[in-house]
Design brief:
Blueprint: E1 5-7, E2 11-13, H1 40-52, H2 57-65, H3 69-88, H4 98-140
Antiparallel strand pairs: 1-2
Helix pairs in contact: 1-2, 1-3
Length: 154
């Protein structure tokens, strides 16, 4: 919303300082900030340079590299704990162990086989009951083939 002010003699002031308004960068913050990443060589080089610097030069190094003293404290601690391994350690979530994936696959396979085994047990149980029923039915019905035909003498 531009404010228009009319000064004497018909001059109009729309609030702009200069015509190069569009050349100025947008003051809004980027929606997604990106973290800077540093290589192990860079960390080692900066630590060596910082440690070798005199009293007044240390702040200049931090400003030039856009670093905080906390960066150096963390890098120095990592260097002391594990030398190059700790300095080159990637940030973020560690890679998953391939054994974990294999264990998960084996567990899924076991679950499927247990389900199949249970289904097979049910089928066997039903077949056993059907067999018992057929035997019971066959015993209750008189067997025609067992009886000998009677001969009638006349």
């Amino acid at each position: 919303m531009a404010m228009v002010v009319t000064a004497g003699r018909g001059l109009v002031d729309d609030g702009r300082v200069s015509e190069s308004e569009s050349a100025r960068p947008d003051p809004e913050v980027e929606p997604k900030a990106k973290r800077r990443t540093f290589t192990a060589e860079y960390k080692a080089r900066i630590l060596a340079e910082y440690d070798a610097a005199g009293h007044g030069e240390k702040g200049a190094i931090l400003r030039r590299e856009r670093l905080y003293s906390a960066h150096l404290v963390e890098w120095r601690r990592a260097r002391d704990q594990g030398a190059a391994e700790a300095l080159s350690r990637p940030r973020g979530r560690p890679a998953s162990d391939p054994r974990d994936k294999e264990i998960e696959q084996l567990r899924a396979r076991l679950a499927r086989q247990e389900k199949e085994l249970e289904a097979s047990r049910r089928v066997i149980d039903i077949m056993g009951k059907a067999n018992a029923l057929l035997e019971a039915l066959s015993e209750s019905i008189p067997d025609v083939s067992r009886e000998s035909p009677r001969k009638e003498n006349g």
